[in-house]
Specification:
mainly alpha; 5 helices; about 120 residues
Length: about 120
């Protein structure tokens, strides 16, 4: 039972790490809509993006305590999957065949690593 609980917590940390990274990048993309300086939009997205990246890094450090480096860093590529999905739904970016194939290759690579 304890092993299942630990695996569940590691999965939650991994999901958080990759989602925080993707949403941090999204926040920085939104940040680019504002002029650099002390204005509300710029500061909001700067702080949000930085905070999300920071949380993702903390989760990454915790994961490295329990999982090998050679597993955590390659699996962090799942962040690119979330990023592509966010860009499609929130930024109206096109989903091309090349992007879909890239996402599938990342997922297949991740599955090979965790099996």
């Amino acid at each position: 039972m304890a092993i299942i609980k630990q695996e569940f917590m590691l999965a939650i940390l991994f999901l958080g790490m990759t989602l925080f990274g993707a949403f941090g990048g999204f926040s920085f993309k939104r940040l680019s809509d504002y002029p650099i300086g002390f204005n509300k939009g710029f500061l909001l997205f700067f702080m949000l993006g930085g905070s999300l990246y920071f949380l993702g890094a903390i989760f990454n450090i915790i994961l490295l305590r329990y999982l090998p480096y050679t597993l955590v860093y390659p699996l962090s590529s799942i962040t690119y999957v979330w990023t592509t999905i966010l860009a499609y739904f929130l930024l109206a970016e096109k989903m091309t065949l090349r992007k879909i194939v890239g996402i599938l290759l990342i997922i297949m690579g991740a599955l090979l690593l965790i099996k």
